[in-house]
Amino acid sequence: MNLNSPVTYIKGVSVARAELLYAELGIRTCRDLLHLFPFRYIDKTQFYTISQLQPNSSEVQIVGKISGIKTVKQKRGSRLVATFTDATGSIELVWFKGAKWIKDSLKPNTPYVVYGKLNWYNNSASMPHPEMETVQAYKSKLQTAMQPVYPSTEKLANKGISHKVMRGMMQHLFQQFFNGIEESLPTYLLAEQQLIGKREALLNIHFPKNQELLAQAQHRLKFEELFYIQLQLLQKKLIRKAKIKGYVFGQVGTVFSDFYENHLPFNLTNAQKRVLKEIRKDVGTGAHMNRLLQGDVGSGKTIVALLTMLLAIDNGYQATIMAPTEILATQHYNGMVALLEHTDIEVALLTGSTKTKRRREIHSALEDGSLKILIGTHAILEDKVVFKNLGIAIIDEQHRFGVAQRSKLWKKGAEVIDGNPVPPHILVMTATPIPRTLAMSVYGDLDVSVIDELPPGRKDIKTVHRYDSHRLGVFKFLKDEIAKGRQVYVVYPLIQESEAMDYKDLMDGYESISREFPSPKYQISIVHGQMKPADKDYEMERFAKGDTQIMVATTVIEVGVNVPNASVMVIESAERFGLSQLHQLRGRVGRGAEQSYCILLSSYKLSSDGKTRLQTMVDTTDGFKIAEVDLKLRGPGNIMGTQQSGVLNLKIADVVKDSPILHLARQAAISVLNEDPGLQNPLNESLLKTFTQFQKKSGIWSNIS
Ligand code: ADP
Ligand code: MG
After folding, report:
1. Ligand 1 pocket residue status of 377, Cβ below 6 Å
2. In a designed cystine with 451, which of 31, 295, 471, 619 is the match (CB 3.0 to 4.6 A)?
């Protein structure tokens, strides 16, 4: 009999109960039950004064006296209301049942201990059906400690596994198995991190003696949970770096230097220079680069991508950029062609709508190596596209690509070193800022570079929130801006579940804008997902050239599109967009020298999250701040890239709230691996054992990147 025995080994757990526990909570073994942590505690160790009570205090214990009592008639029967007072204030105690009996038993002017849940109404608290005893009676009893409350389900409760029964099972579990609980962190780490032992931690997470010990128990268990995740991520990275060879871009040659010295249209920002250095260091070593480049919209990732590609060419390799949409790929292509205008480097564009003849030309130029740079959509991934020697693949806005697509890219490398195929270096660029805490746990296996500085001279985008009824005022403003020579985006939501309706909204909107902005004075472009790529491009191009002043669109323009003269972004039904989408959309303006504006239109019906989203947009343009709010609103499970990773199935830690612990855990994991990469040191025996078990459980990791 040990912790891996089924829960039926615990006294009082019948086969029927065991089945219920498994069906409802996935608990099979004693160890599983041991790791079912309480989600709150009934704390009878602490006393509050009435002035300390807060709308978020739930169950509290107070000492005071009854200072008044009355019966209030209501529709059916009556309720009893007692005013309960201590030196700092008073609250109401309320009984809906048994009023008569209670009224007779309450003693005025006698100190009582009351315990119960608070209801808040208009900033004043009341406590329905409190538990009460006189202070005298309370003192004559043994002190009660904090009681755990476990996650439960309706079914469990209905079938008799109440909180009390659950607590009983836990108590038996501890009585029977306490000595079988093994330490899972090495002694030196416990000392270094000042952590309490595993047994003590588990005992106090279930039956805390006091708040202080509970906090220590939580800290220890959170640390352990995050530590093993980090250890796994870091070890995987070490293995990847040691095992997977990468092409060596050892030298800076004429292609790079000529461009850098003669054709660079601006000075790089310090952040761009730093990131470029980080990339060069990676690709120069013979290890494989797997790097995430984060940079807010407009921070200038494109030039970094280009310079990296030139470095590849200098070392005899080909390079490719893959973008998620045709519009974006085309724009990258046009941008690169312009930048490379005075060099003799050729660039080709490959998308779903590339004509067969051109396609064939591209295929053969890639195979014989005469074409050095290919830009495109996922058309690049087709098997027919074979590179002679692809040295680096750059992925723009990677959250649009699935893991499978990324691994296809991985296989486009051609060379074999020491019998192993060498994948191209991978640089993933994203404008969706991932809060650092999350990046560490989700992408802990990638290296991360951040461009945290915008090119000079950018003005902050003025953002306002207006209700639909102010639309006329907004139109007036647009006319003024257009009169100054500016251009305007008007964006409508397109959300898959209601596509037909959204489409109708877009068309209605287009019509009303056409009425408000009549031709020939005004010219309007429209772009949406149901148009043919060629038509989209045509419309985009008209807008980019300034032939049209207004671009009516769905979110297809969300990523990457760059028209510096466009200075106003109007977002219709803004409350229906997520924060990161709003931020991306806003990033379409503010790219030129002019003051830019973002106008968020919404109906009056706003959820509280909706309000927070719009207010956040009005308050800040900092992508990382926006990402933090987004994370708080939606929880980590909904942030890009995390769904598949399963990394956030945390039992006790919270990647947002516990980021300081995450940091400690990561540092600790780094130093453990530095000292003992193979975890062979006898001091790490318990660590290796726990780690091996942990890895067996989390197969998900193999999928990442
Ligand atoms: P993103 O990071 O969103 O892809 P881009 O690479 O499209 O940003 O750059 C946005 C704009 O800023 C482009 O017009 C680009 O030419 C310009 N830009 C980039 N870097 C600099 C710089 N160091 N100085 C001035 N302008 C820059
Ligand atoms: Mg970009």
Report:
1. no
2. 295
